[in-house]
Amino acid sequence: MLSKLLIPLLLVHQITADGCGVCQPESNTACHSENTFSICMDGKATADIIPCPKDFYCTDGKFTCYENEQPICKPKANDEVTQPPTTTEKVWEPVDFCTSAGDGEYANKDDPTCKTKIYCYLGGTGKYQYEIYPCGTKKPYFDEALGKCAAQKPEHCIDS
């Protein structure tokens, strides 16, 4: 009986052992190559691929990218590299966002911890500009549904 249970578990481990595309619980990210990752939302990797800094590797650690560490997503034995998911979704650009959203405070899509907000405003040149501000200590998380900083961390935000 134990062998019938153990064999499927070993097979599942071998299938996911390369670590590519698997959401890591500590960092809430998924590595897609030795040095790229994406944020996980609801247990699924998003399509926005983020590179690690130069000479850093994607790991299962708290801060995802570490220098001089073993990557968890390694090329397969036959040198076939797992490709990140393809997407036609444009990379989030704050200026473009502000131009379409208008004046106000919004979630900073570049901050998976939700501890900052983006303030959009029409600048003196007639073009939209933005500033990024931290939420305060009493209300440290920006809640997109409320449109303001709040005391409770939204579910999709990761710990810093």
| Shape annotation | globular
β-strand amount:
25-35%
Total of domains: 2
End-to-end Cα distance, whole Å, is 43 Å
- Would you count the extended β strands for me? 12
- Helix and strand content put the structural class at alpha+beta
Number of helices, counting only DSSP H or I runs of 4 residues or more? 2
Helical content stands at 10-25%
How does the major sheet shape up? 5 strands, antiparallel
Mean of pLDDT:
80
Low-confidence stretches: 1-17
Radius of gyration: 19 Å
Quickly list its features.
2 helices; 2 domains; alpha+beta; disordered N terminus; three-stranded antiparallel beta sheet; 160 residues; globular; single chain
Describe this structure in words.
This protein has helices at 2-16, 94-101; strands at 23-24, 29-33, 36-41, 44-45, 50-51, 56-58, 65-67, 104-107, 116-122, 128-134, 141-143, 148-150. The protein has 160 residues and is an alpha+beta fold. The chain folds into 2 domains: 2-67, no CATH class; 94-150, no CATH class. The strands form 4 sheets. Strands 1, 2, 3, 4 and 5 form a 5-stranded antiparallel β-sheet that branches. Strand 8 (104-107) and strand 9 form a beta hairpin. Keywords: Signal. Residues 1-17 form the signal peptide.
